[in-house]
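Note to self: keep these together.
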Amino acid sequence: MVAVLSRGAQDAAIDAPTRAAELAAQRARVGAGGPAQAVQAARRFEGVLLQQMIQVLRKTAQTGGVESSSASQQYMSMFDEVLAERLADGGGIGLARVIGQALGADQSQLGGAPMITPGRGGGLSPLLAQEPLAARFAAMRQPGATVSAYGVVSSSGGVSSSGGVGALAGAAAEMSVGAAAQRWSREGALTPADLASSFTTPTADGGVAAFNVRDANGFEGHYKCNLFALEAARRAGYAVPVQPRYQGWGYPNPDGVVRDAADGQLHEDWARVVTQEGEAPLVQSGVRGDRAFVLAGSGSAGHAGHMAVVERIHSVAYDAEGQVQRIVFDGWEARATGAQRIEGRIWSRAGHPTPGARNGLAQIEVLELQRPVLGTAPETPTRSNARPSVQDVR
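Structure:
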């Protein structure tokens, strides 16, 4: 008979080697250990993970007799440890190469083949460095980085979470530091590097419609919350919506996103509308960090719409009609003074003001980001027939 492990047991099996590797990885930061220590940290992580996996697999088989004795269990534990070390030294499953690269190790010392992961829409594909796990270890290279309950806190204060939200958090944190943060302010002037998509389509007249900065409205003297949230999602590898601007392609504004989400399904399914899941599932997802969210709120009289990157949802209050009345979360926003990380941020709907909150939103939607179909670009056109770009074709 095969025993099925609970979700908690599975999480514990992964958390243990992660904590051990985090300690080794912090010692291997650039300037504190160098490439040789990075190799050791990467192999240590893969070895501990393999050992945990072997032990979990062993526990799924119910055994008895001599195999259940304490001496036998101790022997099997030692055997599992040696087997895991030998597997890691021989190249393992390729995870050491990914982590080692993120830590700055000499790849020639790691051996093995690049890690491959199944289930991405036909065939095998390499695990990219921007994936959440690798991003988490890459952040540890930063001098002064420490590990928090959320993930890795950089010396600049940004947070790179583990799980599905990790890459999104890392991208938002990178966009919220120094001069880059100021360019996302209301009066800041974005550069092509800030909206770096290379998405283009041909136009009917033989021109090119590009995703661009200078041809579109709203890049200077306007709020940029939607541009910030969706650009962070694109950089993290999630699908994002693009629509025709007066010239070229651009991101939709918050009001447009909310209107699209009002019926519970977005055009082209670039994200999932999960507003109606209820407080408990949304809060639990934040604790696990296995799903990536953005918030979109439409404006009401005298109040502009808004968008934000979510790291963790703390609470959601619904009204009698099942609409979000108030939501509290940690995350990132592009505000009038620039992009920044916020904790305990409150959004509230019109008629339900809260001191210190983003008040007056007509409707609030919670959107779970989705990965694009394998082989397709993150940019997902929600309408067609964009006009040619003029000022900054890419």
